[in-house]
Design a protein that fits this description.
The model has no long low-confidence stretch (mean pLDDT 87). The longest helix has 16 residues. 49% of the residues lie in helices and 10% in strands. It has one domain: 3-Layer(aba) Sandwich (Rossmann fold). The protein has a two-stranded parallel sheet with strand order 1-2. It contains 5 helices and 2 strands. InterPro entries: AB_hydrolase_3 (IPR013094), AB_hydrolase_fold (IPR029058). One of its GO terms (molecular function) is hydrolase activity. This is Alpha/beta hydrolase fold-3 domain-containing protein.
Length: 117
């Protein structure tokens, strides 16, 4: 792990050290080379002609850097991108909308975005 992955791994209840200990070796087995793993990441894809994107992310989750990189690259390729950012939330926190207010806020953000698009 690097960047926010390394910095926030201790805070994220969903993506923790075991994901890196067991998940990364599995990716290496399935995908092989580093280049193939890059090809599997949406961050390095072609966003040309895609419909608008809505990205919800926490400033303190392990994939924060990747989510922002994805949004920037998509926007640079002409994609309409909306980003909602929350603090101190775990990965996929919008799925917890029935349990935490921030999840409900993210759910409402996405619902409003869908209504506008």
């Amino acid at each position: 792990p690097t960047g926010t992955m390394k910095e926030y791994i201790r805070h994220d209840l969903i993506v923790n050290q075991s994901v890196f200990d067991e998940g990364i070796p599995l990716l290496e087995t399935v995908l092989g080379s580093h280049e193939k793993r890059l090809e599997a990441s949406p961050c390095y894809g072609d966003f040309t002609g895609l419909p608008p994107l809505c990205v919800c992310v926490s400033e303190h989750e392990v994939v924060y850097d990747q989510a922002i990189l994805l949004a920037k690259r998509a926007k640079a390729q002409g994609c309409d991108v909306s980003v909602g950012c929350w603090k101190y939330m775990c990965h996929v926190f919008p799925m917890l909308c029935a349990f935490i207010p921030e999840g409900r806020e993210a759910f409402n953000f996405m619902a409003k975005w869908i209504g506008e698009h």
